[in-house]
Design brief:
The complex is a heterodimer of chains A (about 325) and B (about 325).
Chain A: E1 10-23, E2 26-39, E3 43-47, H1 54-61, E4 69-78, E5 86-87, H2 96-101, E6 106-109, H3 123-133, H4 139-152, H5 158-161, H6 171-183, E7 189-193, H7 201-218, E8 221-226, H8 229-235, E9 238-243, E10 246-252, H9 253-258, H10 263-271, E11 328-329
Parallel strand pairs in A: 3-8, 3-9, 6-7, 7-8
Antiparallel strand pairs in A: 1-2, 1-4, 4-5, 9-10, 10-11
Chain B: E1 2-17, E2 22-38, E3 42-46, H1 53-60, E4 68-74, E5 80-82, H2 88-91, E6 98-101, H3 115-125, H4 130-143, H5 160-172, E7 178-182, H6 190-207, E8 211-215, H7 218-224, E9 227-232, E10 235-241, H8 242-247, H9 252-260, H10 300-304, E11 310-313, E12 316-318
Parallel strand pairs in B: 3-8, 3-9, 6-7, 7-8
Antiparallel strand pairs in B: 1-2, 1-4, 4-5, 9-10, 10-12, 11-12
Helix pairs in contact in B: 3-4, 3-5, 4-5, 5-6
Classes of the chains: A alpha/beta (about 325), B alpha/beta (about 325).
Chain lengths: ~325, ~325
Amino acid sequence: MRLTLMADEIALAVRDLAVHFEMEQGVVRALEGVSFDLRSGRTLGIVGESGCGKSVTARSILRILDRPGRVVGGSIVLDPGSSGSTDVLALDPNAERMRAIRGGRIGLIFQEPMTALSVHYTVGNQIIEAVRQHSDLSKQSARDRAIELLREVGIPRPELRVDAYPFQLSGGLRQRVGIAMALAGDPDILIADEPTTALDVTTQAQVLDLLRRLQAEKGIALMLITHDMGVIAEMCDDVAVMYLGRIVEYAPVETLFAAPRHPYTRALLRAVPTILAKPRQRLATIGGAVPHPGARPVGCPFHPRCSEVIEGRCTAAVPPPIPPGQAGASCFLEVPG
Amino acid sequence: MNILDVVDLKKHYPIHAGLLRREIGRVRAVDGVSFHIAKGETLALVGESGCGKTTVSRCILRALAPTSGSMHFSMAEGQSVDLAVLPKRALRPLRRHMQMIFQDPYSSLNPRMMVGDIIAEPLKVNGVPAAERNARVLELLELVQMPASARSRFPHAFSGGQRQRIGIARALALNPRLIVADEPVSALDVSVQAQIINLLLDLQDRLGLSMLFVAHDLSVVRHVSDRVAVMYVGRIVEIAPTDALYRNPRHPYTETLLAAVPAPDPTLRGRRMKATGEVADPSRPPPGCAFHPRCPYAVERCRLERPELTEIAPGRFTSCHRAGEIELAGVTG
């Protein structure tokens, strides 16, 4: 099945991305052949439990993967199909060109905005610096732009807040500043890594609304990383479900929730506590825990926890990956045996 | 019978300034909170960060000394003691009756102790003989669905969910009369969270636990609690049986909270109500009802007069001047 909105331009194409962490104890395969597209004006949700590789994917795209992590294969192509397409993996992470892409073409929103903000400078100074790094505006124009960005992300009285230090702001306002920072280079791709996980629920609702509005206004390609199925349902057009470094299911959001195809997706959806629960309602559980990525099971990585495991098949080989741009599950139940 | 009766609990922190460190104001972290926990019941205390829910739980455990108010804790003999005024020394023999389950299973277990010793420690401190201790440890491991072999291993060998089970076994070791669980599943992955929620439900059924469940996640709370108390800026704004509170909230803040939770269902997208503004600062709470600057239903009276928590139907309490006249939306399952 082809996804409906093929017409939307592909802003970034990730193909067969593989990342290894070379540790003393051996090689940890953090990502094993991850492929997906980010499309202008659309939101791709990446969901999965800890260790599934969702943050490693984001960091690889921005070339800010920490040692001992290393991209060992694949490509990450900006503007594929156009004459000016660029494989960011071919660039030196510290080269001027990569720095122009990081924060320029691709903005990043962190879970904890203080990761991106310094405690020593006012929020204005930091946004001004980011603006000037990606444009040739004068100091005064950059300051005006910073105030405009703060207003755009819904910060009240931005002309005063521009001179505030991050610690003087509440968590919700800090995350708005984090978003303003991410927008400073006028990116057309935004990667948001658990952007609301550290926020209270009413603040989360406001920040999600803000992200949705900005995306619609600017036609941004948004990649939203989260562990929260509620946030996925609320925000995304398409969803990639990850497990131990692989995309195990890819689908439009309505399809994923209405007719999940991978046993892991099905189990995950049943395990989510819901605000619509009946009193004392028990949850379906997935046996065991996510294995350490260094102790990846042979065959399908999910098979030891899978209730529909096919002995001899799932235990022996890794199911084929989902072709990029298509909905489906990487599961032997999908492949005629 | 009530295990715990809290009446008008306050915890204020003075703000000092100037050369003479004069008190120039107070942070009213908890400002007149009353509730009870019946035997065998789980009461959830919910609210956003800074609302005072954790301060309440720390006062009950007397990790903090309350500024005023009473907290009557019923003892096995049918007598009760006021935890608020008890001197530290008199508290010690009571500690075994109140146990805690922590949020972070990684920092709450001593990495240098074997799991068997971690679980046995409260037994040892309370003079249970070694032979009995071993039997009890095995019983507890079975209760939290861990293999007996876990006894002789160290915490690092276990996943987050298994560690949380170990923490629960330790908390249950002395058959406490009250369990205080502060965000016990919020650090866990979804698949593991579900296991621990089910375990807590099983333990409630099997042992008739009385529990104060402090949490910010309204979905988790709907699964595990019998009643819910919603806090906002140091005060309880609503208490109700769980299902009634979710279906038919009677305080506008409860309605706002429920509406803000994204439901795991894309067909319900966009029905969220906008929450405006930010949580008030507990050192400078707004006059009148603390929620009025964010409340879509606020009228003049709400700006002037602070509403008291009142019983509007059997077992249902709300502190809203307009509770009788406004229709609020809940979430139904």
